[in-house]
Amino acid sequence: MQAYFDQLDRVRYEGPQSTNPLAFRHYNPDELVLGKRMEDHLRFAACYWHTFCWNGADMFGVGAFNRPWQQPGEALELAKRKADVAFEFFHKLNVPFYCFHDVDVSPEGASLKEYKNNFAQMVDVLAAKQEQSGVKLLWGTANCFTNPRYGAGAATNPDPEVFSWAATQVVTAMNATHKLGGDNYVLWGGREGYETLLNTDLRQEREQIGRFMQMVVEHKHKMGFQGTLLIEPKPQEPTKHQYDYDVATVYGFLKQFGLENEIKVNSEATHATLAGHSFPPEIATASARGLCG
């Protein structure tokens, strides 16, 4: 396998006096804190999407990065090359976990049949990489927001074919997460919201996504997944009025559909900011409601 970061040493703990910019000065994975290893307190993970999928594009220009796994070529072979790069990166960074969206690690293809076949092959590749490296999957999820079919939502979409496509992606990604020994499965509804009430049936959309989440829970128990299901609250981006606006909103949603004991939350600091909160109140709300994931 070609090495991509062979000029870099692995990041290690060197103590607070170290002047090495690529070293841990305060994070010592093996140091005991309150009887527990620091690595077990701070479960760092590297994400696939921002790290390996962004090509440098912005609103004013096309992608400017020259990365070997983003060159023209056969999509599945490029995905395997990306996995080589990713796991070398995880090793060099000395992180114990990684996480992904389905289409981060596998080509979407032109049909659901291609999607499932590609993903199945890449799950085998990832399983081998995990075995070789010792890096574990913190969580997996399905990208049900980038493809134009999801412009009007995924689980909340008025088109039953789009709803079914999203359900297939989620089931397939859940199965992959389970096979790879993932600790959690995340549900982030980037398009599950609306911009205007003029073309929105709030009751219908809420009932659709509620039933969708109930089916997710049913599938979790059916396949014997022992990990945690997580909803990641986030408003304003890309859809202004989100059904998972903040932790309190998610709690109300879960209570309505009898899911408050089945799904927890995966909170992010910047998502709290988008909701008009600082991060501590979001964590406190999740803790008070028993939703900390």
Automatic annotation (TrEMBL):
Kindly state which keywords UniProt assigns to this record, in alphabetical order: Carbohydrate metabolism, Isomerase, Metal-binding, Xylose metabolism
Annotated coiled-coil segments of the chain: none
Q: Where in the cell is it found?
A: Cytoplasm
Q: Which domain of life is it from?
A: Bacteria
Family as reported in the entry's similarity comment: Belongs to the xylose isomerase family.
For this entry, the protein name equals: Xylose isomerase
What is its EC class? isomerase
Assembly, in brief, is:
Homotetramer.
User: Major location, coarse class?
Assistant: cytoplasm
Q: Supply one GO molecular-function term.
A: xylose isomerase activity
Query: Cellular component terms, GO, for this chain's entry?
Result: cytoplasm
Record's SUPFAM superfamilies? Xylose isomerase-like (SSF51658)
Q: Which reaction does it catalyse?
A: alpha-D-xylose = alpha-D-xylulofuranose
GO BP terms: namely:
D-xylose metabolic process
Q: InterPro entries this protein is in? A: Xyl_isomerase-like_sf (IPR036237), Xylose_isomerase (IPR001998)
Instruction: State whether keyword Repeat applies.
Output: no
Known EC number(s)? 5.3.1.5
